[in-house]
Predict the structure.
Amino acid sequence: MTRSPRDHYDAVAVMLHWTMALGIFVLIGLGLAMKHAGLPKARVIQLYQLHKSIGIVVLLLAVARLAWRFVRSAPPLPDALSALERRAARAGHAALYVFMLALPLTGWAVVSTAPLNIPTVLFGLIPWPHIWFLADLPNKAPAFAVAQALHKYGAYALIAVVAGHVGAALRHAVKGDVPLARMSFFTHAEDISE
Ligand code: HEM
Ligand code: HEM
């Protein structure tokens, strides 16, 4: 297949995409397990610490990814896509970027307003502050309730958007009009002929 260099994402975008996809899948699993699996309390506390640590890493990577997106724009969508498919792809990707940033921020808001006021220490090593203006509220209970609801329902909405994204990626890969190779580590310079 003949590819131009702009038929696939650059190495930084690919690395960020897959690192963050892994991180987000792990966060969804940890989040659901710590809230709903009925695990012993000591184990739940460990999972919370791990969830917070990975979540903050995802937040930092999301900022880096958005910045990189401005430096190196995405390769143009293939001509084979209809106008509707283009709009859907753009809207879906924009929604994923919004969730990548907003969801960790709401999680950070939860821990900053939590009545137990448990500090966040990333991977048990690096102290991470609360969001100061939330932590300093005289009555944190309403903000805590809002942050919890936003984080929980935001996570469920993210799961739905990611499911749609993966479904669309696989469907187009099968149809052959948008190859998965656009986001692959295994597309090398020698694959590009032009
Ligand atoms: C939490 C999981 C995921 C998130 C948050 C995510 C997010 C994104 C975003 C935001 C883009 C657009 C990048 C840009 O234009 O700057 C993208 C592209 C892409 N993603 Fe994902 N993704 C996830 C998982 C997956 C999985 C599991 C697959 C595999 C089926 C996949 C396949 C792709 C492909 C092939 C593209 C390139 C689309 C194109 O050709 O333009 N993604 N992803
Ligand atoms: C993309 C990033 C994130 C994802 C996908 C995610 C996902 C989830 C999920 C699925 C839950 C369980 C929701 C439920 O069923 O009640 C959850 C809970 C939670 N997450 Fe996250 N999370 C992310 C980032 C963060 C961050 C950065 C923090 C804190 C620094 C955090 C702190 C929490 C806390 C404290 C809970 C328990 C909330 C409660 O008790 O209602 N999360 N998360």
